[in-house]
Amino acid sequence: MNNEAIMRQAIALALKAQFKTAPNPLVGAILTDRQGKILSQGYHRKSGLPHAEVEALGNYKSVPEDSVLFVTLEPCAHFGKTPPCADLILEKKVKKVIIGQRDPNPKVNGKGIQRLLDAGIEVLSGVCQKECEAINPVYIKNVTRNLPYVSIKSAISLDGKIATASGESKWITGPQARERGHLLRSQHQSIAVGKNTLEADDPRLDNRAEPKADQPVRVVFASSGDISEQSHYFKSALSPRILFGGPEISKDKINQLESNGIDIIQSETPMPGIEWALRKLHEKGISSLLVEGGSRLVASFLKEKMADRLYLFMAPKIIGSQKALGWTGELGFTSLEEAFAFRFENFEQIGDDLLITAVI
Ligand SMILES: NC(=O)c1ccc[n+]([C@@H]2O[C@H](COP(=O)([O-])OP(=O)(O)OC[C@H]3O[C@@H](n4cnc5c(N)ncnc54)[C@H](OP(=O)(O)O)[C@@H]3O)[C@@H](O)[C@H]2O)c1
Question: Residues 6 or more apart from 32 whose CB is under 8 A from it?
């Protein structure tokens, strides 16, 4: 097997833990002999559990002479929850390391490679680099921009509407599409809706696809903090709740929400800004956010260029009213040149509906 073929196997290993490693990246590692025969392998399964290199090298006091370590991401050189993997590689007497992607985390970014080179280890970096990068969009965004990765999800009609003119939106898409929506919730650490959606739909904002998994943090944008005491969001303590509000929320309202376990974060601006809110989520260790509407909130994410991925579940129905809300509200563009360009990533038929995935 050549280097690329082995690295692709390491990528496949890393992907076994997809959506389970946050805030850590997905990483796979394979130890081979010089002919490319696999001797051992491993992947990072979950934050706090061993890194991929530890899984691949753990059983050796020192690795066989002439063996080669393939790892999808540069080995770390700092103490996190576990000791530096670069030190482990030295300790196990690995002589050659082949790396997919340099770690963009400023705590590592070249330091792991340098540690290996300084110890006289042969290092080859950048093998299948693009493919290695492609498995870690969340981690890369987190460490390079200090922001959570943002996906927007909407259930829309063929004419791009999310509700009828009278506000009816349950259900535009069919049961299979809705089930997939729950899977998306299980793949994100938090979910957000705007105040009007909370009022209109009273969503539970829980993940029913994998109920045993951690439930996402529930985020609501409501400048006045004025939300119904009868809403699921107010009543259910299933997972942490954050409310982004403006500066004018009354003391009584704050007491009422906080005594009910809701964490209120107030902006200085009358309406909480999106990038500001995302920074707060990042500070709380939240690595990804699924925005479930409605139209105005989505527009705010788009206007501030804070959306990384779109999941549009499209039903073969036409709602057909100019008064009905589209999945994004007013963005104020007047020319095609200004229009946001996404890149289609995938189309999939789910029951009677289509799931269109696009990335920025
Ligand atoms: N089909 C679907 O997938 C789907 C999904 C979700 C919702 N919906 C439908 O969408 C409709 C609601 O959408 P909507 O556009 O009226 O309202 P929305 O986006 O749910 O909520 C907008 C409200 O959130 C508050 N807010 C606070 N910070 C904000 C910010 N930075 N940007 C934007 N809003 C912010 C504002 O109210 P305050 O100023 O009072 O705080 C604003 O009016 C409902 O009919 C619902 O059923 C459909």
Answer: 1, 6, 38, 39, 67, 68, 70
